[in-house]
Task: structure prediction
Amino acid sequence: MRFLSRRLVMPNDLNFAGSLFGGRILEWIDEEAYIFASCQLDQKSLVTKHIGEITFQASAFQGDVVEFGLAIKSVGRTSLTVTCVVRNKGTKQNICIADDIVFVHIDSESRTPQPHGKTKEQLDKLTIDPPS
Result:
């Protein structure tokens, strides 16, 4: 799993108890997972179809830096499924795990699913040997 981006927990990200609001972290996960999927497939026309199990394991607080680890779980003809782990940059403690985030490549005009043209083997090779 590659940890590709980070965010600083700010006051407007907190819930009534002073910890990172679950809804904010889910918003960030959807955005980060989209960026990852879009970069992997080299496609912009992706929509979130499904987010599976979400497990909150620890809290984050104002001033914490959280980082997002993303990995490809499976590749379909029109879809890409990823897993996202959010952890505290300083402590390396997992804050949240979102499994089975499914993105579907769509035609930008008709909004219907379209093949993205990539295989898991091709995408795994990109992860191992990123372009220079």
Q: What stands out?
A: The helical segments are 22-41, 120-128. The chain is about 20% helix and 35% strand.
